Amino acid sequence: MELKLQKIIPQLITVLVVVLVFGFFTYNAQINMENRGIDFGYGFLSQESSFDVQFSLIEYDGSHSYFRAYLVGLLNTILVSVIGIIIATILGVIVGVARLSPNYLINQFAAFYVEFFRNIPLLLQIFFWYFAALRALPLPQDADAILGVFFLTIKGLYVPAFVWENLNVFLYSIIAAIIAIVVIRIHARKVQETQGKQLPVFWISVGLIFILPLLSFLVGGVSLSFEIPKLKQLATTSFKYEGGISLPPELIALTLSLALYTATFIAECVRAGIQGVGKGQKEAAASIGLNPNQVLKLVVMPQALRIIIPPTTNQYLNLTKNSSLAAAIAYPDLVLVFAGTALMQTGKAIEIVSITMLTYLSLSISISILMNWYNKKIAIKEK
Amino acid sequence: MFKYLKQLTSLVAMVAVLFTFTTETMAAKKSKTLKNTQKKGFVRCGVSQGLPGFSNADAAGNWTGIDVDVCRAVAAAVLGDANKVKFTPLSAKERFTALTSGEIDILSRNTTWTLSRDADIGLTFVGVNFYDGQGFMVRKSSGITSTSQFKDGISACTNIGTTTELNMRDFFNSKGISYEPVAFEKADEVVAAYDAGRCDTYTTDKSGLAAQRTKMSNPDEHIVLPETVSKEPLGPVVRQGDSVWEDIVRWSLNAMIEAEEYGITSANADSMKTSDNPAVKRLVGAEGELGAAFGLDNEWSLRIIKQVGNYGESYKRNIADTGILPDRGPNELWTKGGILYVPPAR
Prior knowledge:
The structure holds two protein chains of two kinds.
Chain A: H1 2-35, H2 66-99, H3 104-118, H4 122-136, E1 145-146, E2 150-153, E3 156-159, E4 161-165, H5 167-195, H6 201-218, E5 223-227, E6 230-235, E7 238-242, E8 245-247, H7 249-275, H8 279-287, H9 292-322, H10 334-346, H11 349-378
Antiparallel strand pairs in A: 1-2, 2-3, 3-8, 4-5, 6-7
Helix pairs in contact in A: 2-3, 2-7, 2-10, 3-7, 4-7, 5-6, 7-9, 8-9, 9-11, 10-11
Chain B: H1 2-26, H2 32-40, E1 43-47, E2 56-57, E3 63-64, H3 66-79, E4 85-89, H4 95-100, E5 106-107, H5 115-120, E6 123-125, E7 130-132, E8 134-139, E9 154-159, H6 163-175, E10 179-184, H7 187-196, E11 201-205, H8 206-213, E12 222-224, E13 232-234, E14 237-239, H9 243-261, H10 278-283, H11 300-307, H12 311-320
Parallel strand pairs in B: 1-4, 1-5, 9-10, 9-11
Antiparallel strand pairs in B: 2-3, 6-14, 7-13, 8-11, 8-12
Helix pairs in contact in B: 3-9, 3-11, 9-11
């Protein structure tokens, strides 16, 4: 009985303290807001925002509501996070493996990259990529075409836009290819388990993913053309490109700096993971006749991933949260649009900051849940 | 059980400390702000992060500007020394929260007086110390000399969280021009991006454009277009709910303007005590009991004039002599063709 009480009392006290502290702050905020004549409420979300945003994934202008502005910011945050995570992961894996390369030049270069980028504050890197790169880029009228169709200018990267005909047929062909690949993989596994024979699954997959979409062009009536950006004159020395897709320099600078910074940490996770697999494992695998590819795929990677995934999850979370530094270089993310402009125009500080915090919390938790699910999937399943 | 007793007492002590801290701030007094300011010995003033002519710090950390002078005037009136001001540089986004949360007591940061700000978010505007309007700056080489030459697709750099963002939309919408807004949090970054060529035009209050132009790598390459697209009356702001403090700030500003009207300057203020004009005598504290209404002595306005100067002196020192806007335009006294007109101090 004594023991049980000893366990419960500290917990009760903790709960009580948490409730008291929160209650105290809420109460105090209420009193202060009342004294200063500030209303509390979320009604403003449906009001007209009356400010425009530079870059949006959904249709938006100042005649839409503050809630819509919130969505614009949220989607921009998600966009930069997703692209950043993809680039950081690819780069991180390459650099992590390169650090273990027996080639002196390669591993030293990888080590230099890691030490250089992870030891400079991220905000500084963002400023560097934005302002230094901005000054180095040509004005639209001076830009040379890259491969004839891309234009990298101080006002952004202009790329050709795809103009599709019968886009749906093309998409169906890709879906069909994916289904076919899954079916073949299942079949190949069965063949291997029952007959011990191995089918060239990889080459079949590659063939399918190319041939089916190609067929959709030849017989499905799909056609693709490109809309190439064209120079337009705004004033004597002021130009821009029209047509095609334009990526603002703010997005490019932010994605680049986030990816380059986070990749260094992922590279270290990858290196730790691979080095964490015992040498004996590789030797044992080789001794039962697996070729080097199979050793990596069937023995080393499954064990290394278990070490790599949890710390990499942290890095994904960091990247997502660090994307809020966007406000410094005018990329319209959640913090700039919603916790910036919208907060200023409405003055609803407590409401907006609480929504923004909850949003980041939900984003982070979603990433965590996804990565934990993956981690569980690759964990050792003891029988 | 003794083990927990110790933890419990420290917990109770912690909560008690938290409560004592707040009961002090919650107590409603007649002018809490005035009392606190006199107790602390300095005026807490929110200013910009660096706008020449309005509020700008030199290398040694000395603040100058007409917005700064408003805070100095209040310090002179309330504490007797115009230097007893603690300046807090604030971004456009932080400024109102800093004021409503009590971090500062006066916000004197080229802030536009609008209905929604005045009525909605717990603020009170006390007056106008600069009549401004939004304008556009472009590169001379662009050949643009009027906003009517703007074309679809123009990119415009500006600050977030300002009336500028809203006016810009109203302006481009009314002209039916599509535009790309590029909005930064800090003014220095807006200038850097525009200067680098990221934007075709830079838009903010015209006084701001004139001031920021001096920061460009080559100021002569840029011009401010003649059109003014909005009304921007800039002035100091205080928290709602302390009407005595509100009056002190309002009349500190008014005293500076009225002093100019009556020709009282920092140099001749003392000799004006023997003036024949009762209005002049009231302003220099030689007649009437004006200070008593705020709980101040009678020489509050004399100290403002002697230590900070009248509005004209402040304007000349900060804006005209620095080459930002030599022409006073609407910011001239009503008696000289401007629109500066303040109620009489009597």
